[in-house]
Amino acid sequence: MNVLGMQTLFAKEVRRFMRVPGQTVLSPLISTTLYFIVFGYSISGRIHEVEGQPYLHFIVPGLVFLGIANNAFLNSSSSLFITKIQGTVVDLLVAPLGPGELMVGFIGGAMVRGLVVGLLTWIVAAVFSGFSLEHPLATLYFLLLSSYVFSVLGMLAAVWAEKFEQINFFPTFVMLPLTFLGGVFYSVRELPSPWNHISLFNPMVYMVEGLRYGMLGSGLFSPLVGGAILAVTAAVATGVTYAVLRSGYKMKA
Asked: Which of 20, 72, 170, 245 could pair with 151 in a Cys bridge, judged by C-beta atoms 3.0 to 4.6 Å apart?
């Protein structure tokens, strides 16, 4: 195992997004503030409680999840895709780095960005609604594994994409619909039929509800069920991405 190579790639990935903090950190925080102003204060006047929680408290875990998912995905997908477009991916392929080591470097950097944005989002949310952390270990589990899953999916999207338009396919046509059907701003129990049943097959629902359980102490589903679904999703995504990198699919000339 090339530990030095993994550390170097990881450090490069972290430095890459830290060079533009306005884009990678400040922009998501502004979006979170707008979400609280638009959704929190305007809707909380009409909807005082959801699933026994004040509405402003209820949406916090979902907003933290959005910050983690979007930024973890964007970091790994954009970084790997740019190396393909610029042709510098050859340097990675000839370096003494295997598929697993490449994944550790890219995914580690993406997780750092996702978690930084998620934690800062949580801090901003605390200004509006107060800080709440009922189950620290459960919260940590869902934070780490959610950032990991979307970092892996970002790598997979970057390997598959050949054009800039394709790199946006997954966040636009997959992540966005699943997010808005994932119970971020509402309880999926309140969706009309058949959407309330269809949403049960959406893994994002269990990620959001897992964070909701960890932060607020209650969720629609057992955290064990959500944790198991998240672990299976992570394992499948890891296996597929590792196999794709090992085969050199769309990576080797």
From this structure: 72
| DSSP symbol at 192 | P
Amino acid at 42: S
Write the single-letter amino acid at 82.
Answer: I
Evaluate whether 156 touches 241 at the Cβ level (below 8 Å).
yes
Taking residue 133's Cβ as centre, other Cβ atoms within 10 Å add up to: 13
Cβ-proximal residues to 103 (8 Å cutoff; 6+ apart), any chain = 152, 155, 238, 241, 242, 245
Q: Under a CB-based contact definition with an 8 Å cutoff, are residues 16 and 109 in contact? A: yes
Token pair of 117, please?
A: 């944005």
What the block records as the tokens of 17 is: 């997004």
Q: What is the pTM of this model?
A: 0.91
